[in-house]
Amino acid sequence: MAKSGKDYFGLGRLVSVILAIIPITALILGVATRFSEGKIVAGLLRLLLGWNIIWIVDLVLMILNGRIMRLLNI
């Protein structure tokens, strides 16, 4: 779904950073992004572990390069 090279469904970088700052939206959109890419295991891991370190890493990566972390590509 993110064909424009951006995460969070191709939204602009500023909107994506704002959404990544809010923990619950970052969790929901991170899980939805991974499921929309067809990465079921990565989506489930993000759902279970996305509220802690993954959220902080996603926030930093979203600010720096506009993409969330891709730790697992399964």
List the helices and strands and how they pair.
Elements: H1 13-21, H2 23-36, H3 40-49, H4 53-65
Low-confidence parts lasting 5 or more residues at pLDDT below 50?
none
Mean pLDDT across all amino acids:
83
Morphology call: globular
Roughly what fraction of the amino acids lie in strands?
under 5%
List the helices and strands in order.
Answer: HHHH
Strand segment count: 0
**What does the radius of gyration come to?**
11 Å
The number of helical elements comes to: 4
Helix content: 55-70%
**Structural class of the helix and strand makeup?**
mainly alpha
Largest sheet, in brief, is: none
Terminal-residue CA separation: 17 Å
Question: In words, what does this structure look like?
Answer:
There is one protein chain. This protein is mostly helical and 74 residues long. It is 62% helix and 0% strand. The protein contains 4 helices and no strands. It has helices at 13-21, 23-36, 40-49, 53-65. α1 packs antiparallel against α4 (53-65) and α2 packs antiparallel against α3. It starts with 12 loop residues before the first helix and ends in a 9-residue tail after the last helix.
